[in-house]
Write a structure and sequence with these properties.
It is a single chain. By secondary structure, the protein is of the alpha+beta class. 25% of the residues lie in helices and 30% in strands. Strands 5, 6, 7, 8, 9, 10, 11 and 16 form an eight-stranded mixed β-sheet that branches. Strands 1, 2, 3, 4, 17, 18 and 19 form a seven-stranded mixed β-sheet that branches. The radius of gyration is 19 Å and the shape is globular. Helix 3 crosses helix 5.
C-alpha cells in the first residue's frame, strides 16, 4: 500500500538577498528596511537551515508534497530545491503563483516529488483574500498519481492579527468563507463526491477553536459530524496536537502547546483539515493514516525556554545581531501521512 507524506511550513520570510535581481520593484521599496544587511551568506544559511529540517521529514526521505508560505518568489524555491535534491536524492518540482497584492509580496507554494505526482497547470488556482491593507491567498492545486488518483491541496496563509486579534478577526472570517466556498465548489463539481479528496493546510493565524475555522471554514473536531455531513465539512486534525511533546536543542523533553509562540504564549495556527472521504477511505483514493497528523521538529530547532517554541532565524533590519544563524523559522511544520484507500 503506497504512502504519501504531506506537510506544510511557514518558513518565515524566505527572501532572496538584499540585492536579489528578480525582486519586484515595489517589494524592493517596501522591504528595503527589513532586508538591509540581508547578505548572500545569511540567505544561504537560511536555505541550509530549512533544508536541514525538510530533508529529515518522512524518516529522512523528505516529504512527498510540502506546502509553504512566506516565500518571496519562485527563484528562492529553486535555490532551496538545489539543496533538497542533494540531501534527499529526490527531484522536486514547484507549484507557485505570485501574490502581487500582499504588502510584503510573500507567496504560498508547493514543492512535490515529480516522480510520484503530476500537476496539470489548469488545476492550479490562486484565491485571494482581500483586505484594505493588503491580501493573503489560498493556493489550490490537484496532484495526480501515476494510477490516476487525485488529491486536491489548498495552501493557506490567512490575514495576520496585526492591529489586534479582535479587530482583525473579520479578515480571517473572510478567509474562512473563501476556503469554505471553494471546498463546496470542489465537492459540487466532482464526478463522485465520495472520491473528492481535499486537504487544506496552512498558517491560519487563528486557533482551531476560533470562529473563522469552526463556522466560516466549516471545520470541526468531531469525526462523526464530518462523516454524517452532506455538505462540504472538514475534520480539523490540529485538535489532536493542541499539546504535544518535543525534545529541545539541549536534549531535554518539553511539553508544547503551540506551533508558534508570540509574546510568550503558544498558538496552534498551523493546521491540517481533511474532507470526509479521507477519514475512512471508502471509495476515495486516499485515507489519512491514524495518528500521523502532528507538528514536525528536529531538536536543534526547539528552544529550551518555556515561553518559546521554534528558534526563529529573523531578518536583519539593518542590524546583523537580529539574525540567529542557528535559527530556522518562527513556526513548526505540520505533517500528515496518507495511504492509498483502494
Amino acid at each position: 500500500m503506497a504512502q504519501h507524506f504531506v506537510g506544510f511550513w511557514n518558513v518565515e520570510n524566505l527572501f532572496g538577498p538584499e540585492d536579489h535581481p528578480p525582486r519586484i520593484p515595489w517589494v524592493a521599496r517596501k522591504m528595503a528596511g527589513d532586508l538591509t544587511g540581508w547578505t548572500q551568506a545569511m540567505y544561504r544559511r537560511k536555505l541550509e537551515q530549512l533544508d536541514a529540517v525538510i530533508s529529515q521529514m518522512n524518516a529522512g526521505n523528505g516529504p512527498d508534497i510540502l506546502g509553504m508560505c512566506e516565500v518571496e518568489d519562485r527563484f528562492v524555491l529553486e535555490d532551496l530545491l538545489v539543496l533538497l535534491s542533494a540531501s534527499t536524492g529526490r527531484v522536486y518540482d514547484i507549484v507557485h503563483a505570485d501574490n502581487l497584492h500582499d504588502l510584503r509580496g510573500i507567496d504560498t507554494a508547493f514543492i512535490y516529488d515529480r516522480d510520484r505526482y503530476s500537476v496539470d497547470p489548469s488545476t492550479v488556482f490562486n484565491h485571494f483574500v482581500i483586505r484594505r491593507t493588503g491580501t493573503r491567498d489560498i493556493l489550490q492545486a490537484t496532484f495526480a498519481t501515476g494510477d490516476g488518483q487525485e488529491l486536491i491541496l489548498l495552501a493557506n496563509h490567512w490575514p495576520s492579527r496585526s492591529g489586534g486579534a479582535e479587530k482583525s478577526a473579520g479578515f480571517r472570517a473572510t478567509a474562512g468563507e473563501t476556503l469554505g466556498y471553494w471546498h463546496s465548489r470542489i465537492r459540487e463539481e466532482a464526478r463522485d463526491k465520495d472520491r473528492s479528496c481535499v486537504l487544506a493546510l496552512g498558517d491560519f493565524n487563528d486557533d482551531p477553536f476560533d470562529p473563522s475555522l469552526r463556522f466560516n471554514a466549516n471545520s470541526t473536531r468531531e469525526h462523526g459530524d464530518v462523516e454524517r455531513a452532506q455538505s462540504a465539512k472538514f475534520y480539523n486534525f490540529s485538535w489532536e496536537y493542541l499539546i504535544w511533546q518535543a525534545q529541545d536543542h539541549r536534549g531535554k523533553d518539553r511539553q508544547l502547546n503551540g506551533t508558534l509562540y508570540y509574546a510568550g504564549n503558544g498558538n496552534v495556527f498551523d493546521q491540517i483539515l481533511a474532507s470526509r472521504p479521507m477519514l475512512d477511505g471508502g471509495a476515495a483514493g486516499f485515507k489519512v493514516a491514524d495518528g500521523t497528523a502532528k507538528p514536525f521538529f528536529i531538536p536543534s530547532m526547539v528552544s529550551h525556554k518555556t515561553s518559546e517554541g521554534p528558534i526563529r532565524f529573523g531578518l536583519p533590519k539593518g542590524d546583523a545581531t537580529k539574525v540567529n544563524l542557528d535559527g530556522y523559522s518562527d513556526h513548526f511544520p505540520v505533517v500528515i501521512q496518507l495511504v492509498d484507500a483502494v
